[in-house]
Amino acid sequence: MATFTASPSNTWINTKSSSRTNSSSILLNKKRSTSKNTISCSLQTTLPFPKKYQPQSTNTTTTTLIPTRETKPNLPSNTKPLHKQEQKWNLLQQAAATALDFVETTLIKQESKHPLPKTSDPRVQIAGNFAPVPEHPVTQNLPITGKIPKGIDGVYLRNGANPLHEPVAGHHFFDGDGMVHAVKFTNGSVSYSCRFTETHRLAQEKALGRPVFPKAIGELHGHSGIARLMLYYARSLCGLVDGTHGMGVANAGLVYFNNRLLAMSEDDIPYHVRVTPNGDLTTVCRYDFNDQLKSTMIAHPKVDPVDKNLYALSYDVVQKPYLKYFRFDSNGVKSPDVEIPLAEPTMMHDFAITENFVVVPDQQVVFKLGEMIRGGSPVVYDKEKVSRFGVLSKNAENASEMKWIDAPECFCFHLWNAWEEPENDEVVVIGSCMTPADSIFNECDESLKSVLSEIRLNLKTGKSTRRAIIEESEHMNLEAGMVNKNKLGRKTQFAYLALAEPWPKVSGFAKVDLFSGEVKKYIYGENRFGGEPLFLPNEDSENEDDGYILTFVHDEKEWKSEIQIVNAVNLKLEASIPLPSRVPYGFHGTFIHSKELEKQE
Q1: What is d(CA 183, CA 535) in angstroms, rounded to the nearest whole number?
Q2: pTM for the full predicted model
Q3: How is the cofactor bound (predicted)?
Q4: N or C: which end of the chain has fewer CB within 10 A?
């Protein structure tokens, strides 16, 4: 990942207790820290590292707020979102904690002798507006410049990585704790709030006052990564931490399904988050679909706009089956798992659906845990592997009829849409093909390039073709975005995608005609950057591009954030709302209309 310059005013971070549920939150200092436990770096950022962890009281009682798990089909709406769990350490556990803390301190000293790659250096990964913010309670009646368009009535939500505690070792931006930002529109009035998703991982680390769970991307490299895994397992065996209820961060995706807002990352099952009537957010539980979901679920499940079913994948990096497909009907009833045979565990961040099929990418970024023994990263770009796409019936009961079609040198981190063209015996896939394929995870000299592509899979011949939708002379990196959600899985003309330049920042978004390759850009302005553009269709219109783009924009000079509403037809700004809190650059979002919120579980 390329380096970028942090604002000199962005000095990170002190951890204090918040009034909300006695939680720890991150406070941003604008003054340079005078702590002796700091290091300076070329990014003009100072990181005050936390003091060595010690039990917070002499009786070693830790009170942790743990999200409850829904296990009954019809949980009453007044179910308490959290319950208290007390952990009391006996003398042996206290001794084990002290010994393991000493081991970790020694490990950190050893790691500090070796420079971190930019892809796991927190001074790079969470510098500038990638740095975390504290929770912000609801602020009502925000000032509005312009006019909120008719029909925007509901809540815009966006997920992102926001580490509660300062990293003590390697940290990748994807490792941060999940935080959801909510902008609620009610009869022309606007409110804002942001809250952590209270995962089991967050609750335990909050109570302990430090990070203790291994970070999958930032820390698990080479021999020190193995040592950190052993340290975690030792703490687990001693009862100092509990990973049996998942270790996910729920920081990537958001989907509203079966009257529930779900926050997701592919390392766990989803978390159910509720939007309160006044626009605040509260975590209800780690949601297993009433005891139906027994494995992780990727962060990009798909809701079909016609049958209203939710389609999803689950991948495992340790044991077979490495990949499973399943679906939930509109009432939340899960299908049996379909095990998809793979030779090795493969990264499956996204997939696509059509009217009748699911389209599964099996690409060149794979997991090889043995590489850690040899001192490397377990996330590997396998140059010898041939990328391919699997096409399977949505209603398949097993993978025997899956049609695999090779698509050489194709790595799409995200797929924007797919549809069927029966007259050609083809499935058309729209995605951004990224090179180098592992550049997000592993440091490399080659600059990242993301090419918006049309990939055609011929079900009759078993062959594929790929073309760049935009002319090479007009190339731009397009990542993060969407098509009209009411057209998902059907032929679409337009896609709305983040203009990821200069990488990894987003300087604007592009409206791309997928048929002609015509591009219309909306640029945020000098020193202003944003993230994923959310397309909100006009439900009363038949025109595919009739709607609005909602996006957070941050001014790096003024150090202020706002939400912008842009007309998707002519790309004219309709309204902007300054926000009471800085909004870090983040991941994916959704919009829930007010009528849907009324039915929220």
Answers
A1: 15
A2: 0.83
A3: Binds 1 Fe(2+) ion per subunit.
A4: C
Residue 47 to residue 244: CA distance in whole angstroms: 32
Give the pair of three-digit tokens for residue 60: 């070693």
Peptide linkage before 436 cis (omega within 30 of 0): yes
List b or e across 500-536, with b for residues whose CB sees 16 or more CB atoms inside 10 angstroms. Answer: beebbbbbbbbbbebeeeebeebebeeebbbbbbbbb
Rounded to whole angstroms, the Cα distance separating 365 from 383 reads 9
Residue with tokens 């179910």: 79
Residues 6 or more apart in contact with residue 563 via CB below 8 angstroms: 156, 183, 192, 550, 551, 552, 553, 576, 577, 579
CA distance 392 to 402: 5
Q: What are phi and psi of 265, to 5 degrees?
A: -140, 150
> For residue 474, what are its two tokens?
């007009």
Please give the annotated binding residues for Fe cation, written as ranges: 300, 349, 414, 588
Alpha helices per DSSP H over 90-209: 91-111, 122-125, 200-208
**361, 387 Cβ separation under 8 angstroms:** yes
List CB contacts of 112: < 8 A, sequence separation 6 or more: none
- Binding-site residues sit at 300, 349, 414, 588
Q: Find the helix or strand (DSSP H, E) in which 229 lies.
A: helix 222-237
Mean predicted lDDT score pLDDT of the chain: 82
Cα 543 to Cα 567: distance, rounded to the nearest angstrom: 13
pLDDT at residue 81 is higher than 60: no
Q: What distance lies between CA 458 and its chain's CA centroid?
A: 32
* Contact criterion met (CB below 8 Å) for 12 and 166: yes
pLDDT tens digits for range 203-217: 999 988 888 888 877
pLDDT tens-place string over residues 124-179: 888 889 999 999 999 999 999 999 998 899 999 999 999 998 888 878 878 889 99
